[in-house]
Each structure stands twice: as C-alpha cells, then as structure tokens.
Amino acid sequence: MEQYTIQLIEDLEKIAQKPLECPDYTLLFPDHPALKHGLDYIVAWECAPDISFQNGFGIIHEAFPPVEQLTEVQAQRINQAILKLWEVNNLFAKLPEKLPSQLILYRELRNMWQKGTFRLLPDGNTEIDFCHYVEGSCPWGIDFCTCKDEDWYNEEDDMNMEDNDPSTLPF
Fold first, then answer.
1. DSSP string, 130-163
2. Average pLDDT for residues 44-62, to the nearest whole number?
C-alpha cells in the first residue's frame, strides 16, 4: 500500500501545480440583472455550477483506498496532499483545530471527494464544511466537535434536534 500511497500523493501534487481556472461568469451570463448594479460577484454565486471533486480534479473516488487499508501516517500524507490541492484552488476545509485522528479526517475527505461538490468563484474562497450542526452526527465525535461550543448552538431547540431525516425541516 505504501507505493500506491506515494503514487496517489504524486498525482495530487501534480494536479495542484495547475490550479483550475475560474470562468468569467459575467461573460457567460451577460444578461444577469446583478450586472446592472455592478454586483459581478452575485453572478458567480448564483450561476457557478456545482462541480464534483472527481470531475474537477480528474481523480475518481475509487482511487482513494478504504481507510482500513491505511496507516495513520499514510492517511496524514494523503490528507495534506488533498488539502494542499484544495488550497491552491481556493477551497478550504473547515476543520476543528484538533482532530481525533488522521484516519477520521481521511475518511471525511474521501467521503467529500466521492459525494461532495464545490464551486469555482472568482477572487473568492469556498469553504468546505463537514459539520451537520447536529451534536450526535458530528463526523469528528462529540469530544472534538467545535460547533457545540458556539453560543447559537446551545439553544434548547438545537440540542434536542436529531438528524434522522435531512429532508425534514425543523419548523
């Protein structure tokens, strides 16, 4: 697995050398009403397509080995390569300062690569959030969850909410 890990990291580093180019959404959508008011960034926010990580970076999610096949050190090296690739493309993972393990972070990055999307925005940064804002479903575990420490989170309604059905609205 070590040789495969090295090759995967090299592939990620190679892709990171050429950041994705953000299209000029004002040219693609010249009739957008925000342009009349000089709000070019609104055009990008509203019109930028969702891009899967697989399509955006050209590495299928199956290229990332299951977490059970990696050591903590291998996971850490892959994590660093993924986060660097995202950073050069103005994508930033919102992570707690302290993580339970590199293997858990790898699991979440791998899941995001498989199921997540991002948008390329001009002169902007896209934050990739892993939190569901429900205490019982925190991917980092309750001891490492940082959203539970926010003032807004400790309200009575939020503490009792369960994430059983994400399509259900809380009101």
1. ---S-GGG-TT-TTT-SGGGSGGGGSHHHHT---
2. 92
